[in-house]
Amino acid sequence: MIWYVLLVAAVAAERIAELVVARRNERWSMARGATVAGQGHYPAMVALHTGLLAACVAEAWLGGRPFLPALGWTMAAVLVAAQGLRWWCIATLGPRWNTRVIVVPGLPLVQGGPYRWLRHPNYVAVVAEGVALPLVHTAWITALVFTVLNAALLTVRIRCENEALAGSWAAPSAPAGDVTA
After folding, report:
1. Which of 2, 25, 79, 176 is such that its CA lies 20 to 30 A from the CA of 93?
2. pLDDT tens digits, residue range 49-85?
3. Are 122 and 49 contacting, i.e. CB atoms less than 8 angstroms apart?
4. Closest Cα partner for 134 from 46, 61, 60?
């Protein structure tokens, strides 16, 4: 069980690293006249993602969830792949990436990296992580509850992001890419 707590702690540390990058990118964006949208749903997103980390450990420990190697190692591989996709998105968007919906007017939409194939690849990573992290240690209730709540939140988030991007497009016919986590 201790290794699972350490895994969840590593994911938490990764999230803190994301917030550091997001803060730096927010300053870059605001210096270029960026606008911020969707601030109403942001606290719910923070609470949900923080709750995921806590619930993973709580369910695995309090529920006496076993580590099932076939499931656990498969989900660990999905988790690693999700982290790789997330950081590919961050690297592709560069200073435009953020955990908030922050858009610099007039910049063309990103069409490289994973955005070449997916409209919102970072959210694919979030969904995969939300399923995989709990299931590494068979915390299936956490995986299920997070997935349902995250689907509702992403419905709001993606609509907000698409509207914000639509108002800033330099080339309206270009496909959109995530600007946030």
Report:
1. 79
2. 999 999 999 999 999 999 999 999 999 999 999 999 9
3. no
4. 60
Q: What is the pLDDT of residue 172?
A: 41
Helix axes 121-135, 42-62, angle to 10 degrees: 20
- pLDDT tens profile 124-154: 999 999 999 999 999 999 999 999 999 999 9
Q: Compute the mean pLDDT over every residue in the chain, rounded to the nearest whole number.
A: 92
Q: Are 14 and 87 in contact (CB under 8 A)?
A: no
Tell whether the torsion through CA atoms of 79, 10, 126 and 112 is positive or negative.
negative
Structure tokens at 139: 């915390």
For residue 79, which amino acid is it?
L
Which residue's entry shows tokens 């210096």?
31
| Nearest to 149, CA basis, from 70, 51, 54 | 51
